[in-house]
């Protein structure tokens, strides 16, 4: 057992867990942040994606201890109060989700994709092929990805506008 | 249509909780004192269980109990049932072996549970499970149909000699023989319909609680049909009486058929919660899902089609071996019979059809309905047959189809189904236009110049949805009726709750069903709530599968609404001192037609509940229930065309375009309908190109994780081009047909037809992996 | 996962010392391979020593004709590095195609090489470029490092600290991913050294892990062009065969990916 201290959605937390505890279980079991899901046991489906120090990673493939001292954002921490993150809004407006199970990981990965492309100076111009390729690590069984891709492209535009406004 | 009424692209009401991480799935449920279950599963495909020693495990930290198959038998928990009785052609009933929830004596597939550890934490349960010693005596296994039906093959169940569950047939054998004797051309085809693993993204889970004082059970479970679960757990498994069992299916992360069934794990969790007198949680992991969720498809078929000299179809003869796995799952027997062979007429006039279906036990995971269930197998067979025939007869495949289309409705096929309505020309024409079918030869030539092999493939599917009527399915052997219920509660303030027996696990019922109410009453959907998935709230329901929710569940809502409106009109007429026949409903108001006299719905509702001024003899309240039993199936149909390129160097397929033209009757929410088609297409394309469950000869599942079972990912699929042609279903009040399975039914054949067109070799099985395609090109 | 003891090392020396204390220790870098194996209960280290935050183990250095990537540098950082893009674009391209974006943020070159998965990407680059693996104890030539499936020249407690790649005249990598796992079903790295030598390595193909591909090397020595491989035949014997690719299919992929790697290299 170890005490793991980290910041989750802006709040400092300290949790006693077995050393074998994965970050996803710390979030779900100890912090009751059940929006982060587990969809596989081979680190492939991406339902567990969260941001650790600004990077979208699979929280099922990270020990809680590895996240000590880090800043973690989960799906629950993405919206600003009642105001949805543009990616969340785009998923809703484009019907980018059905059963909702892969959705949190999908949204967290998608936010990262857009951030990455904006910061690389591609002018936020993501194309469909790039989005499809970069969603490689997130599996959805319901949507056929059609509307997810639409949502990410839509959000890329919205986030650029939001960025410009800031 | 109002802005939120029928036909409006309303964004989903349920989305906010999912996009903010507030969805509540079974594994999110926590209870005070909750314990955790971990199952001990057979590593062998076939073995005797000689003994289970849990002495060491019981000493490990946190262990509460180790429960075995023998205990579940001793407690007289019922064996798992198959709910549809099929009669073989010789008149004998199907031959079923017993399936206890945990195996006391014999295991028959890898992953079958023999015992369960209950512990304080999940990790403790897993740790202790490794200390339970199970003494197995391995037996030879039969892992596929061909091996299982050989003489001398290992026998799974003494009740089923030769591993044959049934040998069933349908149609007129003599008429088909006659048709073939007159044929100018005969086309033959042998093909496999590959076994699939459903892989809903949320693994199955259960949280069971036994309240000792009340002798009452609660089960949270990942179910598409919680009421059926309660019925089966009570009436057949004897775990809890129906009135003492509450089953809740909260947010459920996809089903695709796999969450229809009441599995051993859910049974054991419920049984164990009383045994240990603690709440018990079981959450499957993906590896367990691969081994224990009912698989889909797995047919091996031979088909022959007879044509006259004008290329008109004279007859069809099909022989199919269906792999059921080691046990007969809840709905399994009906899938390759009444959901498959009855669809073998497709969109065509086929004067004579004869099909034989042999159901076979093998030492593999049980097989049951998976998105489409029988209909994809029928459609794949028929549409590959039509393409093969066109090539053999040297005619354009669209022309051959059009020549043989059914044009007159209603149309009685030779295999039970009576198609009520359709327009098959409209959908194929729409699809051909969308993909510029006429321009394909030029595109193919250009691709060839670039070193790519381009192909185009067509698939015209028809499906039968909303299985019904109950009386008819009962006469065919079904153990349940297939109606649906709805209850409309208008509250005293005029808000509305709709209680439905349908269950939403991605389909968007919380929005679509509200739109039906909004359309009729003109109230905003924010005033309407959909209640589902809880047996304590909804009296009864048959659940969601087989694209039935809107056609059957939606129709039940309409029937209940008609009753509510009739009563409300009486109250309004009384209040407005008008004749009931003069009352019309507009924008949430009850108006006297031709006047400015009106009373708003909340005032009508309030009047119903205050009961101060109701018509004489009227009961207070405004709440109505309807049970709707359809008169026929619905028949969604459509045409899919796929254009793709094959890289001859690697055998890899890339999509150029995929168009779908579907006829679902009336669309309530086109946005949601399109989403259903997208998802179905992905699963159909997945079957064609990527997915296939593979067992080795010893019965080990080779594709037991996402490392080896290829799930469709975003970069495997194209964006889809959808359109709709519409013939309204005459059989239900909404004119709807259902859309959940269409994509999965129609897509596979279009893809394979396109690849075989591209490579010029028709010998290709699904999944058409790069390896297989490369070999098909290069030999 | 079995219970284990997690330690975060502050320095390379600290990592080595912590490692020695455990009865069956393992170094943990990005964890993108080790943790999945531990989750399946296929590995049960008594202790895991996290080296991913050791400052001396992170970073990229390009000087003269050598690109040095410190062992705990994530794939993403390699893929994004302008210096790597300029010096060995094939290496940054390879790094940009490992796993998926989430894996690339965590997975590291040292972890990948120490694990030596027969379908991993980096071993192909290391072998084809003739890189040197630096450890806390010594330098190991690529030829001497890979010892078959999941096996390397590393001794118990030896830790990779960096990998040095000589900058080639030309290099290219082409991968055909396993449709399910997205690991390399076959990946081929071709390199022409500044001295004019040609080295070609294939991953994912051979039963004994990453391998040099003699017939392709000879053909490219004679003529550095994709078409030079048209007449090359790769033997299927000794190649992996599974549901995703038979041995003859993989043999074909070695050739076809070799051609595409040459095209990518220019």
UniProtKB/TrEMBL annotation, chain A:
GO function terms (MF aspect): 2 iron, 2 sulfur cluster binding; metal ion binding; oxidoreductase activity
Transmembrane stretches, start-end: none
Keyword match Iron-sulfur: yes
Domain 2Fe-2S ferredoxin-type residues, every copy: 2-78
Assigned keywords, A-Z: 2Fe-2S, Iron, Iron-sulfur, Metal-binding, Oxidoreductase
Keyword Oxidoreductase attached: yes
PANTHER family per the UniProt record, alphabetical: OXIDOREDUCTASE WITH IRON-SULFUR SUBUNIT (PTHR44379:SF5)
Protein name in the entry: (2Fe-2S)-binding protein
Organism of this sequence: Bradyrhizobium uaiense
């Amino acid at each position: 057992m170890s005490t793991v201290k980290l910041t989750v959605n802006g709040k400092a937390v300290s949790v006693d867990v077995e050393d074998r505890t994965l970050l996803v279980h710390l979030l779900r079991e100890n912090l009751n942040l059940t929006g982060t899901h587990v969809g596989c046991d081979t680190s492939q489906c991406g339902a567990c994606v969260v941001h650790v120090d600004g990077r979208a990673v699979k929280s099922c493939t990270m020990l809680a201890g590895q996240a000590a001292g880090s800043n973690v954002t989960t799906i629950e921490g993405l919206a600003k109060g009642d105001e949805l993150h543009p990616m969340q809004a785009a998923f809703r407006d484009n019907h980018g989700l059905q059963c909702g199970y892969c959705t949190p990981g999908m949204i967290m990965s998608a936010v990262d994709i857009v951030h990455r492309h904006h910061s690389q100076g591609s002018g936020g111009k993501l194309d469909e092929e790039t989005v499809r390729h970069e969603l490689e690590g997130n599996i959805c069984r319901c949507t056929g990805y059609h509307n997810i891709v639409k949502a990410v492209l839509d959000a890329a535009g919205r986030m650029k506008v939001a960025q410009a406004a800031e | 249509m109002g802005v939120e009424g029928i036909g409006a692209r309303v964004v989903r009401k349920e989305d906010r909780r999912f996009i903010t991480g507030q969805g509540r799935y079974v594994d999110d449920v926590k209870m005070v004192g909750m314990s955790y279950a971990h199952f001990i599963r057979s590593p062998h495909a076939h073995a005797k269980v000689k003994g289970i020693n849990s002495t060491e495990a019981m000493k490990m930290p946190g262990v509460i109990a180790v429960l075995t198959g023998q205990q579940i038998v001793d407690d007289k928990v019922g064996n798992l049932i198959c709910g549809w009785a099929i009669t073989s052609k010789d008149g004998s009933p199907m031959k079923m072996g017993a399936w206890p929830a945990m195996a006391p004596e014999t295991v028959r597939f890898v992953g079958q549970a023999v015992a369960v550890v209950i512990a304080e934490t999940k990790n403790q349960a897993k740790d202790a499970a490794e200390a339970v010693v199970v003494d197995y005596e391995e037996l030879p296994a039969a892992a596929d149909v061909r091996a299982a039906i050989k003489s001398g093959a290992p026998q799974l169940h003494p009740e089923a000699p030769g591993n044959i569950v049934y040998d069933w047939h349908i149609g007129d054998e003599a008429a088909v023989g006659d048709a073939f004797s007159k044929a100018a051309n005969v086309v033959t085809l042998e093909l496999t319909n590959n076994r699939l693993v459903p892989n809903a993204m949320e693994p199955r889970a259960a949280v069971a609680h036994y309240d000792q004082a009340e002798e009452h059970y609660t089960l949270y479970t990942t179910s598409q049909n919680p009421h059926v679960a309660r019925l089966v757990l009570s009436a057949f498994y004897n775990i809890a009486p129906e009135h003492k069992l509450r089953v809740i299916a909260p947010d459920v992360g996809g089903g695709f058929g796999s969450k229809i069934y009441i599995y051993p794990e859910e049974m054991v969790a419920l049984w164990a919660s009383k045994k240990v007198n603690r709440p018990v949680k079981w959450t499957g992991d993906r590896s367990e899902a691969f081994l224990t969720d009912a698989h889909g498809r797995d047919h091996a078929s031979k088909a022959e089609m007879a044509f006259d000299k004008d290329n008109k179809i004279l007859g069809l003869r099909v022989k199919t071996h269906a792999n059921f796995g080691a046990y007969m799952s809840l709905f399994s027997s009906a899938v390759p019979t009444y959901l498959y062979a009855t669809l073998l007429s497709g969109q065509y006039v086929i004067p004579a059809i004869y099909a034989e279906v042999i159901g076979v036990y093998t030492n593999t995971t049980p097989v049951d309905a998976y998105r489409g269930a029988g209909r994809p197998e029928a459609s794949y067979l028929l549409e590959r047959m039509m393409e093969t025939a066109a090539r053999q007869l040297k005619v354009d495949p669209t022309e051959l189809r059009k020549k043989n289309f059914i044009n007159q409705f209603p149309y009685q096929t030779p295999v039970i189904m009576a198609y009520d309505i359709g327009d098959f020309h409209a959908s194929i024409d729409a699809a051909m236009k969308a993909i510029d079918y006429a321009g394909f030869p030029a595109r193919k030539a250009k691709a060839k110049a670039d070193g790519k092999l381009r192909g185009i493939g067509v698939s015209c599917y028809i499906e039968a949805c909303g299985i019904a009527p109950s009386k008819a399915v009962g006469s065919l052997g079904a153990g349940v009726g297939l109606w649906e219920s709805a209850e409309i509660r208008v509250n005293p303030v005029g808000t509305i709750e709709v209680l439905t027996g349908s269950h939403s696990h991605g389909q968007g019922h919380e929005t679509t069903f509200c739109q039906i109410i909004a359309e009729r009453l003109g109230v905003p959907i924010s005033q309407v709530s959909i209640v589902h998935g809880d047996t304590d709230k909804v009296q009864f329901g048959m659940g969601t599968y087989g694209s039935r929710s809107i056609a059957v569940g939606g129709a039940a809502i309409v029937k209940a609404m008609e009753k509510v409106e009739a009563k409300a009109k009486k109250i309004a007429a009384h209040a407005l001192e008008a004749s009931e026949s003069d009352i019309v409903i507009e924008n949430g108001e009850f108006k006297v037609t031709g006047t400015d006299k009106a009373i708003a719905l909340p005032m009508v509702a309030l009047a119903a509940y205050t009961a101060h001024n109701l018509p004489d003899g009227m009961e207070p309240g405004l709440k109505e229930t309807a049970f709707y039993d359809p008169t026929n199936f619905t028949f969604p149909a459509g045409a899919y065309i796929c254009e793709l390129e094959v890289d001859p160097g690697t055998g890899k397929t890339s999509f150029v375009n995929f168009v779908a033209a579907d006829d679902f009757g009336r669309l309530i929410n086109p946005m949601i309908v399109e989403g259903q088609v997208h998802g179905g297409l992905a699963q159909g394309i997945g079957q064609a190109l990527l997915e296939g469950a593979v067992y080795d000869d010893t019965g080990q599942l080779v594709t037991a994780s996402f490392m080896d079972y290829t799930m469709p990912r975003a970069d495997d699929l194209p964006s889809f081009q959808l359109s709709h042609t519409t013939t309204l279903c005459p059989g239900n009040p909404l004119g709807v047909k259902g859309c959940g399975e269409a994509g999965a039914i129609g897509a596979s054949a279009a893809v394979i037809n396109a690849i075989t067109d591209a490579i010029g070799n028709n010998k290709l099985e699904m999944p058409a992996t790069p390896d297989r395609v490369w070999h098909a090109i290069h030999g | 996962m079995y219970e284990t003891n997690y330690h975060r090392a502050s320095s390379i020396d600290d990592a080595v010392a912590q490692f020695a204390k455990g009865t069956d220790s393992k170094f943990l870098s990005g964890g993108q391979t080790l943790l999945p194996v531990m989750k399946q209960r296929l590995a049960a280290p008594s202790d895991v020593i996290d080296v991913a935050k050791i400052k001396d183990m992170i970073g990229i250095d390009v000087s003269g004709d050598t690109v040095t990537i410190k062992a705990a540098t994530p794939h993403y950082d390699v893929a994004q590095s302008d210096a790597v893009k300029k010096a060995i674009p094939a290496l940054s391209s390879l790094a940009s195609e490992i796993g998926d974006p989430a894996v690339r943020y965590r997975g590291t070159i040292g972890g990948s090489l120490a694990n030596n998965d027969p379908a991993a990407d980096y071993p192909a680059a290391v072998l084809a470029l003739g890189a040197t693996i630096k450890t806390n104890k010594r330098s190991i030539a690529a030829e001497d490092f890979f010892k078959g499936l999941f096996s390397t020249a590393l001794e118990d407690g030896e830790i990779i600290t960096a990998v040095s790649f000589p900058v080639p005249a030309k290099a290219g990598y082409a991968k055909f991913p396993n449709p399910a796992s997205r690991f390399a079903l076959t990946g081929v790295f071709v390199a022409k050294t500044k001295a004019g030598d040609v080295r070609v390595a294939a991953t994912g193909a051979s039963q004994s892990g990453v391998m040099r591909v003699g017939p392709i090397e000879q053909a490219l020595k004679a003529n550095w062009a994709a078409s030079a491989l048209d007449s090359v035949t790769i033997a299927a014997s000794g190649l992996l065969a599974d549901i995703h690719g038979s041995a003859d299919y993989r043999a074909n992929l070695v050739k076809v990916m070799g051609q595409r790697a040459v095209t990518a290299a220019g």
